[in-house]
């Protein structure tokens, strides 16, 4: 993971400023499409199945308007994060019972799942607990502003 840089994990093609989906499953499919179109995963069907399997074990709607669903499978070519934002809110089984406005869909390979998955989650968690940072993500006007904010999350340690 140390060799990954921001562009390896997320880029403007993996960001959706205005999600169309209104439900958890619709948004998972929507962000999975971004991963597939950008060569991050080799199979949308297998990846979605893994994400939903994980989601059925325990919700990834962590509260504060955030969900961090993730898929670990052999169809992941390289680790990445797709990000989507919704001003309307997404119906999600969240820990605080509130709708989700920001979704970070993590894709990690089965072989590197433990380490990559935990490192990505740790990077996200450190920043997302700050109210100002979350507000900034929602207020960002374009993908360039979002990528600038993501630099403070996904950086080499």
In short:
The chain has one domain: Mannitol-specific EII, Chain A (3-Layer(aba) Sandwich), CATH 3.40.930. α2 packs antiparallel against α3 (44-57).
Keywords:
alpha/beta; 20% strand; 6 helices; 157 residues; Mannitol-specific EII, Chain A; 6 strands; globular; six-stranded mixed beta sheet
What would your notes on this structure say?
There is one protein chain. The chain has 157 residues and is of the alpha/beta class. The chain has one domain: 3-Layer(aba) Sandwich (Mannitol-specific EII, Chain A), CATH 3.40.930.10. The chain is 42% helix and 20% strand. The chain has 6 helices and 6 strands; from the N terminus they run αβααβββββααα. Strands 1, 2, 3, 4, 5 and 6 form a 6-stranded mixed β-sheet that branches. The radius of gyration is 14 Å and the shape is globular. The N and C termini lie close together (9 Å). The mean pLDDT is 88.
Based on DSSP secondary structure assignment, what is the total number of beta strands?
Answer: 6
What structural class should be given to the helix and strand makeup?
Answer: alpha/beta
Global shape: globular
Overall structural domain count = 1
What is the average of the pLDDT values? 88
How does the SSE layout of this entry go?
Elements: H1 6-9, E1 15-16, H2 24-37, H3 44-57, E2 61-63, E3 66-67, E4 70-73, E5 80-90, E6 100-109, H4 113-128, H5 131-139, H6 143-151
Parallel strand pairs: 1-5, 3-6, 4-6
Antiparallel strand pairs: 2-3, 5-6
Helix pairs in contact: 2-3
């Amino acid at each position: 993971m140390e060799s990954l840089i921001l562009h390896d994990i997320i880029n403007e093609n993996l960001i959706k400023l205005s999600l169309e989906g209104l439900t958890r499953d619709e948004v998972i499919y929507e962000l999975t499409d971004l991963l597939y179109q950008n060569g991050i995963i080799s199979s949308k069907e297998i990846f979605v199945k893994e994400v939903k399997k994980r989601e059925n074990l325990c919700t990834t709607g962590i509260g504060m308007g955030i969900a961090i669903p993730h898929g670990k499978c052999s169809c992941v070519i390289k680790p990445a994060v797709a990000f989507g934002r919704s001003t309307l809110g997404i119906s999600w089984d969240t820990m605080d019972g509130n709708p989700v406005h920001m979704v970070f869909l993590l894709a990690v390979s089965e072989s590197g799942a433990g380490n990559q998955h935990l490192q990505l989650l740790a990077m996200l968690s450190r920043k997302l607990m700050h109210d100002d940072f979350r507000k900034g993500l929602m207020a960002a006007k374009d993908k360039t502003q979002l990528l600038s904010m993501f630099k403070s999350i996904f950086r080499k340690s």
